[in-house]
């Protein structure tokens, strides 16, 4: 039994838009699942379906053993956090934290009356949690401040604290770090990972930032046009993408793609039409001779993008019909536009795709 389960869920909006298409996905307790995919692929709708803010057109949604498909949002006990999570501006941090709890009390007292919860989940137990949640998130010193006296990152922490105090069955987060600057988002990402690990609850996390997803998630679900294309651990999806779309989406730089005809055909597996390789797998040398690898070609540097800890060298591969390719190099690389170079890629780094851009598995997989 999964803590969260979507069973063949479809959401068609009245105007005919199929936002989510026969989606099946399970998240375990204590697991952080990142939903990633391009804008409009159905990520937010998936979260809203789980929160009960949208009704599915077909399929069922489960939280543990409960079928919540038709359960009202207030009775689902999931906490949803958005990118622009609004705190109550007139309340202190403490007030904001306990506000969720006050609503919770109403929920719990109703639930107690109907006998559907056990005493371990009493409001008192949750009250005890406020202090520890504030401590856990490093917001104890801020308890008496108002939201306008907080930084963006601190506000996000309070919003998360408010969600944690409710002790929900599941956490749903929609781009919670997207409004923060890169450094702060990076710091919070590490903290969130630790918090999520300790919570022991399922976390469904939406982001369009593949880096954030790779860093935070135990598993990724890559979506396109309402469908889940692949679910797996970040490294597994990165190294063994099901198709070219996924390969491109989980990398920070698009995959270099070339037609099979440019390689000695004996290398290609049956059915292969195109092959690809990642920028970090291209070896680049200023020497014109001697570079090895399955694929070895002369090229000319078109542009060098210096990114601090590494550089991207964009090149025109004269020997490969002028294909435009990219290699990841050391930050100190001295290549300049116009330089002639020799590039090479090892055979085991090549990814092969068929005519419909599905990746062809290697014999070792
Ligand atoms: N209320 C609605 N009525 C009609 N279509 C909608 C509605 N809400 C969303 N959609 C459409 O459903 C599709 C999925 O939207 P959704 O917001 O889930 O995408 P997303 O992956 O979260 O996108 P983004 O990354 O841009 O936030 C889009 O084509 C969107 O235009």
TrEMBL record:
Cite the Gene3D superfamilies for this sequence.
Nucleic acid-binding proteins, P-loop containing nucleotide triphosphate hydrolases
Output the InterPro entries linked to this UniProt entry: AAA+_ATPase, ABC_transporter-like_ATP-bd, ABC_transporter-like_CS, ABC_transpr_MalK/UgpC-like, Mo/tungstate-bd_C_term_dom, NA-bd_OB-fold, P-loop_NTPase, Transp-assoc_OB_typ2
Query: Which Pfam families does this one have?
Result: ABC_tran, TOBE_2
Keyword Translocase part of the UniProt annotation: yes
Q: Does the keyword Hydrolase apply?
A: yes
Give the EC number(s) under which this enzyme is classified. 3.6.3.-
Its Gene Ontology molecular function terms? ABC-type transporter activity; ATP binding; ATP hydrolysis activity
GO cellular component labels: ATP-binding cassette (ABC) transporter complex, substrate-binding subunit-containing
Known SUPFAM superfamilies for this protein? MOP-like, P-loop containing nucleoside triphosphate hydrolases
Q: Which residues form the ABC transporter domain?
A: 4-250
Q: Which UniProt keywords apply?
A: ATP-binding, Cell membrane, Hydrolase, Membrane, Nucleotide-binding, Translocase, Transport
User: Which PANTHER family does this UniProt record tie to the protein?
Assistant: MALTODEXTRIN IMPORT ATP-BINDING PROTEIN MSMX, TREHALOSE IMPORT ATP-BINDING PROTEIN SUGC
This protein is called: Trehalose import ATP-binding protein SugC
Source species, please? Answer: Mariniblastus fucicola
Give the organism's phylogenetic lineage: Bacteria, Pseudomonadati, Planctomycetota, Planctomycetia, Pirellulales
Report the gene name. Answer: sugC
